[in-house]
């Protein structure tokens, strides 16, 4: 029961942080494109956060239920970060390596960083739980 509640708590915390980052990037950072494209980035970030959080929770929860080791959690974290890295690599391959942080930073903070944050927060919380329970 504790594992289940820990997975739920880590999922809720990562969802809140990811959603807050999407909102902050949309509202506080300047948009250099038209308003429609800036709002589409916010929509993609919100949908990505809503869809990716339960997927991450399910995979980490299954891993905690079956393996309950930090090594297994790290492997699942790498597997969950791989699609994000592939999407970013495809985008770089299509458009080129030209990167302007002032112009493209809002898109990164709206879509890629919240997904990475979701995985990282859940991984860190579950890893801390495993280390704490193994010591006692």
Write out key terms for the chains shown.
136 residues; mainly alpha; 4 helices; 88% helix
3D structure, described in words:
The chain has helices spanning 2-28, 35-66, 70-95, 101-135. 88% of the residues lie in helices and 0% in strands. The protein has 136 residues and is mainly α. The model has no long low-confidence stretch (mean pLDDT 89). The longest helix has 35 residues, at 101-135.
Which helices and strands appear, and what pairs or packs with what?
Elements: H1 2-28, H2 35-66, H3 70-95, H4 101-135
Helix pairs in contact: 1-2, 1-4, 2-3, 2-4, 3-4
Percentage of residues in strands: under 5%
CA-based shape: elongated
| Cα gyration radius (Å) | 17 Å
Mean pLDDT, rounded to whole units? Answer: 89
Poorly predicted residue ranges: none
Continuous helix count: 4
CA(first)-CA(last) distance: 17 Å
Order of helices and strands: HHHH
Structural class per helix/strand content? Answer: mainly alpha
- Helix content percent band: over 70%
Number of strands: 0
**Quick one: biggest sheet?**
none
Oligomer: single chain
Summarize the structure.
The protein is 88% helix and 0% strand. It has 4 helices and no strands.
């Amino acid at each position: 029961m504790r594992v289940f509640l820990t997975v739920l708590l880590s999922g809720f915390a990562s969802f809140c942080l990811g959603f807050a980052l999407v909102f902050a990037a949309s509202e506080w950072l300047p948009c250099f494109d038209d308003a429609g494209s800036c709002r589409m980035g916010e929509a993609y970030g919100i949908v990505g956060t809503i869809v990716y959080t339960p997927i991450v929770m399910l995979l980490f929860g299954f891993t905690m239920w079956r393996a309950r080791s930090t090594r297994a959690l790290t492997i699942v974290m790498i597997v969950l970060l791989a699609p994000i890295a592939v999407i970013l690599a495809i985008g770089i391959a299509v458009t080129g390596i030209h990167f302007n942080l002032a112009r493209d930073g809002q898109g990164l903070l709206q879509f890629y960083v919240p997904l990475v944050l979701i995985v990282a927060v859940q991984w860190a919380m579950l890893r801390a739980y495993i280390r704490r329970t193994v010591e006692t």
